[in-house]
């Protein structure tokens, strides 16, 4: 996470509430051929992309072999940078993923943070049943949904009003931000390679083909699902092999 100064935008202090996230692929150098090139250099020396693509079935088989037998380094020779806008609590989970990731998050020290807050949508399951390590989430009642939304919005507005009062009184942004809740939206650039992304997806998404069960919080899973959609289009053979081999990072 970076505290590099940014030029502040003109503030728009009208509060808004969101139940979704934003994930955009802003740049990339990632293709299945990157995996093939990295893997084959050890046995065949440097090869051109044309040579690598001569035998599609052989290429597919090699990627599957690397994934199945967990030869991971060939999946690191690529790069994807995502722009992500999500609640702060999502980023606190996200940044537990440190190997193969780089982050730059917007800074509340140098810009006035905007009043965009997370309120679960009606599709978000609200009720947890079962003991830790063995629980499920089930649908909430309309009353619970209404209560959660009302309580969150009231709390958010009160916190943001206190933030604005302190700023107006001349309190530094880095101090005033302390009253803001983790449901506030932040934004960041996150850069990774296919191997680090696969590890993230194995932990932060649920999938019927996964060998190892995962129990992610729904909001970070929403981010993971959108990242996976972008990655699958860039590296379809690698993505297919990831699924075929139990969604375990090599």
TrEMBL record:
SUPFAM superfamilies per UniProt: Thymidylate synthase-complementing protein Thy1
Residues forming the catalytic site: 204
E.C. code: 2.1.1.148
Entry-linked PROSITE patterns: THYX
Gene3D superfamilies hit by this protein: 3.30.1360.170
Source domain of life: Bacteria
Pfam families: Thy1
Keyword Methyltransferase set for record: yes
Cofactor note: Binds 4 FAD per tetramer. Each FAD binding site is formed by three monomers.
Classification via CDD domains: ThyX (cd20175)
Binding sites annotated in the UniProt record for FAD: 73, 96-98, 105, 193-195, 199
Cross-referenced InterPro entries: Thymidylate_synthase_ThyX, Thymidylate_synthase_ThyX_sf
Cofactor: FAD
Protein residues bound to dUMP: 93-96, 105-109, 177, 204
Quaternary organization: Homotetramer.
Family annotation (HAMAP family): ThyX
Summary of the function given for this chain in its UniProt record: Catalyzes the reductive methylation of 2'-deoxyuridine-5'-monophosphate (dUMP) to 2'-deoxythymidine-5'-monophosphate (dTMP) while utilizing 5,10-methylenetetrahydrofolate (mTHF) as the methyl donor, and NADPH and FADH(2) as the reductant.
Protein name: Flavin-dependent thymidylate synthase
Species of the source: Streptomyces hebeiensis
């Amino acid at each position: 996470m970076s505290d590099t100064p940014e030029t502040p935008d003109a503030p728009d202090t009208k509060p808004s509430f969101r139940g979704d996230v934003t994930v955009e692929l802003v740049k990339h150098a990632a293709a299945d051929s990157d995996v093939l090139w990295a893997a084959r250099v050890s046995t065949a020396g440097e090869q051109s992309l044309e040579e690598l693509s001569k035998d599609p079935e052989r290429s597919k088989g090699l990627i599957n072999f690397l994934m199945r037998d967990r030869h991971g380094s060939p999946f690191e020779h690529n790069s994807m940078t995502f722009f992500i806008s999500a609640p702060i609590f999502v980023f606190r989970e996200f940044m537990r993923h440190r190997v193969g990731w780089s982050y730059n998050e917007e800074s509340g020290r140098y810009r006035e943070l905007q009043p965009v807050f997370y309120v679960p949508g009606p599709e978000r399951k609200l009720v947890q049943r079962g003991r830790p390590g063995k629980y499920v989430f089930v649908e909430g009642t309309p009353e619970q949904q209404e209560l959660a939304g009302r309580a969150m919005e009231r709390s958010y507005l009160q916190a943001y009003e206190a933030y604005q009062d302190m700023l107006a009184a001349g309190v530094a942004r880095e101090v005033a931000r302390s009253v803001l809740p983790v449901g506030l939206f932040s934004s960041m650039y996150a850069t990774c390679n296919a191997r680090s992304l696969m590890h993230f997806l194995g932990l932060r998404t649920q999938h019927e083909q996964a060998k190892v069960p995962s129990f992610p919080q729904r909001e970070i899973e929403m981010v993971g699902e959108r990242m996976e959609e972008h990655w699958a289009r860039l590296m379809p053979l690698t993505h297919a092999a990831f699924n075929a081999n139990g969604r375990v990072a090599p």
